[in-house]
Amino acid sequence: MTDLHVVLGATGAIGGAVADELRARGHRVRAVSRGGAGPDGLAADVTTPDGAAAACEGAAVVYQCAQPPYARWAAEFPGFTDAVLSAVERAGSRLVMADNLYMYGPVKGPMGEDLPYAAANPKGRARAKVAEMILAAHREGRVRASLGRASDYFGPRGVNTILGPTIFAAAAAGKTARWIGDPDVLHTVSYLPDIAAGLVTLGERPEADGQAWHLPVLAAPTGTEFLDMVWDAAGGRARNAALRRGMQRVLGLVNPVVKELGETWYQRDRDWVVDDTAFRAAFGDPPLTPHEEAVAATLKWFRAQA
């Protein structure tokens, strides 16, 4: 049986980390992106049926780490997912989806996998639709699939994330690091290499199929605690600020990226804590990277880019 593991979106932050983790574990990798970068890269447009089929051909496991642009999730994600599901079915592969927490909507208390998909906003409904499509395809016997869900992430390559430019790039340049939301509530953060390790574990363990899993994380810090760790690693005088709801509304009038944040502000104004009990019970306690070590490695990467 083939040991080919295919990563869709391999030049993105999560896809790149998954490809690295697969290589470290000794798997054969096909790293798929539009440009086909890297020694094991393949150029393919996986939003099209033909491109997705070429990308997935011969794979034992496909890791879906690609996604449409953030502002176009609602319009494009379901069709994109349908193309990938058809390609995985044709190849007879297993599918691991790199997922997030948008489908739950506003919550109270720690988030377990049993929460309903209660999001009413367009992005949350799009993520709910994608998850439902994948799990339905599994139930119907079309594919064998699992989903690995993570919170806001940071780490090397993490530039298209709420923690990257506003905190790490700013601190690396000695500028003000801005926490988006209330800095005094708990907020689970996920480190990219730890996300990758969790997704690859799902890919290696067929018993993971048929459900969504919250990938393992460390205890959630507050925004203030996270910023303190960043400046401890950066050195120098701490320069922090919080972008709260009122300022987000004002800036959103002139900045479309900031405006997008309003749709899911409930992730910023209350405790946002992941419960990873199910993953740990099924697969054991993983060796997660301590926050301080992860923060230092991320800051080093951002400094190198500057």
UniProtKB/TrEMBL annotation:
Positions of the NAD-dependent epimerase/dehydratase domain: 6-210
Domain of life per record: Bacteria
Pfam family, one: Epimerase
Gene3D superfamilies listed in its UniProt record: NAD(P)-binding Rossmann-like Domain
InterPro entries tied to this protein: Epimerase_deHydtase (IPR001509), NAD(P)-bd_dom_sf (IPR036291), NAD(P)-dependent_oxidoreduct (IPR051783)
Family annotation (PANTHER family): NAD(P)-BINDING DOMAIN-CONTAINING PROTEIN-RELATED, PROTEIN YEEZ
Protein's name in the database: NAD-dependent epimerase/dehydratase family protein
Organism placement in taxonomy: Bacteria, Bacillati, Actinomycetota, Actinomycetes, Glycomycetales
